[in-house]
């Protein structure tokens, strides 16, 4: 059961569960939170039901209940007559819907797989399921795929593949260098793992050779769906359980969907082809045939024909590789090389002619009749008494009836009666079954004419009595040749040859020359003459027919000759044009080759760019269907490789944003880019940008959606804003602090000025006044000579007083405290005018 999740976990095991008769379910990807896992499971084709989560439990419960209700046994001999007839009609219905005949499959396998579908559908009987198939044609397709369960993986049965690598692969390359080719046929390749495993083994050994031959692996299957998947060569990550890390690195590349893809050089080694082993001609000149775990599903009466087909397809001394449950027992066509690992070598068969398989091994025509007959024959129980009436009758006919042979259209003996050996001999050389080589020489001419009449004209023939030496005695032999009805499709006729020597025995005393009147001799001569005339008439008739055919053919050849002459003239006139065109084509071919190389390199660069970029990009066509996407888009939109070509609105995204599709339509309508920011469910920020997709001819052919992860940028922006706010707060605090300091400095300056002015006024000026008073006292008491000096000193004191007063007032104008700034400024202006003689404006 596959539920919501990412990756492709569980996809590999689905086929194994179905092979064992289990039920496989997957959650509907459209309702899954993470649709990647269920979508990957559905893509394998191995899921029985795709259901919403609410319906899965109900389906499991119904499946368990139906196990007891289904009345179909798994053994054919336990089927009732009605069920046996229904089974054959189901097989016929499958042939009508899928053109594949399952009548030669083992009945227990068919019943087990059909019983499983009955349990799923809740139909208790085969007849009821037959009615359901007729009403629901899609069910026939599902049953067809169930019967062709493709359970495989890389290097399945590792020990067997290791033995194949050590014992067989090197021998395939012996005697083959440049110009040679190693040819391998993988039958029933399913999704391609086995074929790629064989190609990997071949490439590994070829890498050890200086001049390796070309490699070719023919991989065939009857299902076109699995062939398409195999041809693509994409596999989930779980193949690391079967493929070594060294081989992964060497022969695989990481797929844009998160899995692995087989490298191009290995893919180009393999030719995938739709092929039915039982009906289509085989490949030829092969070095290795690999048919693993397929013959176990077929009835044993077919296996001899299949082994003959393998023998025909293989070159001498080459190999056959079977599955662990298969073997070639008591077969003169193959000899075991490694019986434990089911590896066999082709044997050379001593025969007059090559042993060719008869195709088809199963008949596509009148399938219903042939299958019914085959089923009836296979389902009929053998008689409890080995001496039953039919067997007894056959024994008595063999013992007492005239000896006979059954001959095919090639005049080869296909069956002998018990006592016919006395009429046959084996010529020297290689053994042969040609009846004309085995009968006595005296019977050859008559037997050849009789067989010709039987096969060409469908007429029975009786020969004239012919003397023959049998077991040392002269006997007169008469034989009858009777044509039989065709027994195969395509028709293959046989003739029955019956010998009889019971009428007369030629002895010396009854020889023709002993008859005096010669009547016996005349009668024999007349009979011989009549036979000769009959043969002559047949020869003349054939000659006339041949003449007419030759005449008509000659006329046709003459007309064709005239046409060829005119055609030759036309060809001659166009030869020069073709030569010049050929030169142009050669030049164009070189240019195209360079262009292809450039395009290939550009494609590789583009692929690596898309794989390396961490930007999610989706290319949509005009119908908003997905054309291409980068691996990052796989994580955001739950898109897989198999979803190419599907509309974008079929997928959920991790943004919870339903406007993506509508925005894409708006871009197509207005041809104006759209850009906005969105956030996914992981709280990561993306810049969504939509642009029209323009071709080289400036034609709008869709929409390009890109999503750039700007989570780090947004985080940095938020941190920068926070830092800016913090800096602005700190600057504001510093500014307030500076303002306070300036205010404090200004106040300190005013205080200092006031202190200096106070000192000048209170201390210095008082000391100067005291000095002035001292000088006045001296003036009163001093002589006249000191009075003049006193005046000079007094003038200096006055100037000092004036200067101290001016300085103290300038440091701390009294108006600042009393009348404010305007009065202080007016006072400063008056002082400047009085002191420096300046005029205010």
Describe this protein's structure.
The structure is a single chain. The model is unreliable at 351-356, 363-388 and 504-516 (pLDDT under 50). The chain is built from 25 helices and 23 strands. Strand 16 and strand 17 form a beta hairpin. Helices cover 51% and strands 15% of the residues. It has a 7-stranded mixed beta sheet with strand order 8-4-3-9-10-12-11, sandwiched between helices. The protein is elongated and about 220 Å long. Helix 3 (53-69) packs across helix 5 (107-121) and helix 6 packs across helix 7 (137-147). It has 841 residues and is α+β, with helices and mostly antiparallel strands.
In short:
With 841 residues, the protein is α+β, with helices and mostly antiparallel strands.
Give the count of helical stretches.
25
State the share of residues found in helices, binned by percent.
Answer: 40-55%
Biggest sheet descriptor: 7 strands, mixed
Number of strands: 23
Biggest sheet, strands in spatial order?
A: 8-4-3-9-10-12-11
Brief descriptors of the model:
6-stranded antiparallel β-sheet; 25 helices; elongated; 7-stranded mixed β-sheet; 23 strands; alpha+beta; 841 residues
Secondary-structure blueprint:
Elements: H1 14-19, E1 25-27, H2 36-43, E2 49-51, H3 53-69, H4 81-98, H5 107-121, H6 126-135, H7 137-147, H8 158-167, H9 169-172, E3 181-187, H10 193-206, E4 214-221, H11 224-232, E5 234-235, H12 245-251, E6 252-254, E7 260-262, H13 264-267, E8 270-274, E9 286-291, H14 300-313, E10 314-322, E11 334-338, E12 343-346, H15 367-379, H16 389-400, E13 404-408, E14 413-416, H17 435-438, H18 441-457, E15 461-462, E16 466-470, E17 473-483, E18 494-500, H19 519-612, E19 616-620, E20 626-629, H20 631-637, H21 659-670, E21 674-679, E22 685-694, E23 700-709, H22 711-781, H23 784-811, H24 815-818, H25 821-836
Parallel strand pairs: 1-2, 3-4, 3-9, 4-8, 9-10
Antiparallel strand pairs: 5-7, 6-7, 10-12, 11-12, 13-14, 13-18, 15-17, 16-17, 17-18, 19-20, 19-23, 21-22, 22-23
Helix pairs in contact: 3-5, 4-6, 4-7, 4-15, 6-7, 22-23
